[in-house]
Amino acid sequence: MTLRRLLFVLLLAALVWLGLVTFRVGPSPEAEIATDLPGIGRSTTATATFREPVRGLGKIRLELTQGERSEVVAEAEFTPRPAWRFWGARTPEATLEANVGRDAVEWLRQGSALLRAVAEPPGTWLRRPVASVTERELAVRLSPPPLAVLSDRHYPAQGGSEVVVYTVGDTSVRDGVEAGSWFFSGHPLPGGGPRQRFALYGVPFDLDDPAALRLIAEDDVGNRATASFVDRFFPHAFKTDDIEISERFMASVVPEIQAQTPGLAASGDLLADYLEINRDVRRRNAQTLIELAEASRDAFLWSAPFQTMPNAQVMSAFADRRTYLFAGREVDRQDHLGFDLASVQRAPIPAANDGVVALAGYFGIYGNAVVLDHGFGLMSLYGHLSSIAVNAGQPVVRGQEIGRSGATGLAAGDHLHFTFLLGGLAVNPVEWWDAAWIRDRIARKLGPGLPYSP
To answer: Which CATH number do you get for residue 326?
Structure first.
């Protein structure tokens, strides 16, 4: 190569380099804005994702603007590649996150606000490109839905049930009764006004504080209204009982349940296998009952008082707190959430009321079992049956035989385990067996919405 050609190549390279450092700014950054809620409430998380894959990101920020007020709620700065380099480190993508709700931004007011994602592209010594801006407008809602109790004489008992009738504003997307950690969703009141609602609810047997019972309504951005409604609360001291389990009893029930329950297998330790059933399978059965309640029909499927097993003797009552003993030492504690009723072997078991069969088959600790859906989350469970006379999905009428008593599952002898459930929570059946209680505590409040004939 001659000197002249070499000088030409060097000059050309210099011009290219000069052009790069003067004009190469890279593509305009892109940004996306997302929020965890459809609007801005007391606490709303906004996320802005920025991308620039060539030279990488420089300065980025997330701004919140309402009227004349504006605030940078999150920002970051990165080092992009030099304009003349096509390799090396850079930050092609980054995310900013901030709480843009009223709890974090005190000057926010009801109305609307603008979220703005701003990215300043890396420039050169001569060029300073215009910042890339992405905007999203959101409604700002800071007031909870209106909520008012309509019914009266709310006298729930520990372990019992009740109903409350109320109205909510049209911004409510979730309303009902909270009872400790349990939630009982509200429903439109049959025959009522457009915002009139009711909620059947249960009181957990281990909840003794009426302040933990409250009516709530929430909108789609988390604003929450609460209302107290309990007029008088009846605490209840439940019976305690010691249950001595023998090796013979465990050997009679454990293999059957293991054979009928997927995922269970003998470990070689009979006591350990029994405790797995009494604890883990019991918990899994309880979760299944909650899931069945979620699919309950939104209709009152019953119109007459509930009935119990005829000519039966009560062997064990609701919420007996049992301590299990083996060889004289305590090995477990569980709560008996139902009634054990016995008369004669293989006694016919009538449906407590009209409904639809939600479950019919072998069901863990309950052995052969039937669960009837009576609507709006109210269900009845019949366990330890020797035989089942109905199928899942089948409508049944009050008094219809659904099976025969037996000793399947965790049962020491022929009897019926009967449980009432609301939203999957076991509640005291005694109330629902009482026609006067249904009339005064349920039907009177629901009015013509409940087609009830005592």
So the answer is: 2.70.70.10
